[in-house]
Design goal:
Rossmann fold; four-stranded mixed beta sheet; alpha/beta; single chain
C-alpha cells in the first residue's frame, strides 16, 4: 500500500506519517504537484490557518491538482475544512469540492474553543470508511472551526453544537478529528481509506 501526504509545513504531518508506517503503508511526503497528481491516493493533513494553507497550495501549484484529483483523497482536520468552498478563518477560499462554508465553533464557558479532546461519533450513513467502526466510538479532536452539515456528512459530533465530523463525496473524504491520534478507531479508518479502490 502506498500513500502520498501533502506537505503543508504545518501541524500533524509527522503523526500522520507515523500512523501510516504503523499500518505498513509506504508513505511519501511531498509538495511537488506532479508527484501528487500521479499519486495512488492522497492524504491532506493540516493544523493551522485555512488562508495560509490555501495560499501555500496555490503558490506551489497544488490547488489545481488537488481540486481535479480523481483517486481517493482524505482530508484530516484542517484538511477536511479545505475541501469546502470557503472558510470564515481568514475569509479563505477552499478547494470547493464540497459545498458550504466552514464557520467558527460556537464557544461558551461550558465548551471553550478550541474543542480539544475525545468526542463521540454519531454515524449518519454506511460507508466503506466506517467499516468496523461502531456508532458512538470516541475519536480525538483539536479544532476551532467546524464544517457544515450537508448531504456529504458521514458522521457528526457534538461540542456545544452538532457539526460534520466525517464527510465523503465521490473520491473526496474527510475527518475533522485526528485519526492518527484516535487509537484503534482511527487506525481502522485510515486502513479503510487505504483499502478504497483507486
Amino acid at each position: 500500500m502506498r500513500a502520498t501526504v501533502v506537505k503543508l509545513g504545518v501541524g500533524n504531518t509527522a503523526s500522520v506519517m507515523f500512523a501510516l508506517e504503523r499500518l505498513g503503508v509506504r508513505a511519501e511526503l511531498t509538495d511537488d504537484p506532479a508527484r501528487i497528481a500521479d499519486a495512488e491516493r492522497v492524504i491532506l493533513p493540516g493544523v493551522g490557518a485555512a488562508a495560509h494553507a490555501m495560499n501555500l497550495m496555490a503558490e506551489r501549484g497544488m490547488r489545481e491538482v488537488l481540486t481535479h484529483f480523481t483517486r481517493p483523497l482524505l482530508g484530516v482536520c484542517l484538511g477536511q475544512q479545505l475541501l469546502f468552498e470557503s472558510s470564515e478563518e481568514g475569509d479563505a477560499q477552499g478547494l470547493g469540492v464540497l459545498p458550504g462554508r466552514v464557520v467558527r465553533l460556537s464557544a461558551s464557558k461550558q465548551n471553550p474553543a478550541p474543542h480539544m479532546g475525545w468526542s463521540k461519533l454519531s454515524i449518519n450513513a454506511p460507508n466503506a470508511l466506517l467499516e468496523g467502526v461502531e456508532d458512538g466510538a470516541y475519536v480525538y479532536f483539536v479544532h476551532s472551526y467546524v464544517c457544515p452539515l450537508t448531504d456529504a456528512t458521514l458522521a457528526t459530533a457534538e461540542y456545544g453544537q452538532r457539526f460534520a465530523a466525517m464527510v465523503s463525496r465521490d473520491n473526496f473524504h474527510g475527518c475533522q478529528f485526528h485519526p492518527e491520534r484516535s487509537g484503534g478507531v482511527g487506525a481502522r479508518i485510515i486502513a479503510n481509506f487505504m483499502s478504497l479502490p483507486c
